[in-house]
Amino acid sequence: MIVMIPVVNDNASTQVAANFGRASYFMLRDTATGAMEFVKNSAADSPGGAGIKAAQIVVDHSPGALLVPQCGQNAADVIRGAGIPMYQTQGFDLDKNLEALIRGELEVLTEIHSGFHDHGAVK
Q1: In this predicted model, what pLDDT tens digit does every residue of 89-105 receive, in sequence order?
Q2: Continuous segment of H or E residues that includes residue 99
Q3: Where are the domains of the chain?
Q4: CA-based angle 59:65:70, to the nearest 5?
Q5: What CATH class is the domain 2-102?
Q6: What residues have CB less than 8 Å from 65, skipping those under 6 apart?
Q7: Are strands 2-7 and 65-68 parallel, antiparallel or unpaired?
Q8: Which residues, at least 6 apart from 13, have a Cβ–Cβ distance to it below 8 Å?
Q9: CA-to-CA distance for 56 and 47, rounded, in angstroms?
Q10: C-alpha to C-alpha distance for 17 and 26, rounded to whole angstroms
């Protein structure tokens, strides 16, 4: 299965990013072969709506699952609307989360937050 994960850097030693919409990259990982590909998150520097834009990037790549520590409501609606299951990561260690997914130990993400609105806005 191909899974997608928001990550900090575009290399194999990266970690899971804490914020889905503002992650620098997304990693596509084939759980059967270990092959990986990185996609720059063009939404990361958006002044607003980063979650929805990042969700569209996920949908455009059609992964079999998304591993994420948290997700806002608007982004979750887009991802769920595309039929992509979301699993909640356990910490930020990428390899441990992939192993947990393969063993069936990651839970489906059910707690969706309202979003981080006005992330980059000057007040």
Answers
A1: 999 999 999 999 999 99
A2: helix 94-102
A3: 2-102
A4: 85
A5: alpha beta
A6: 1, 3, 4, 84, 85, 86, 87, 101
A7: parallel
A8: none
A9: 16
A10: 9
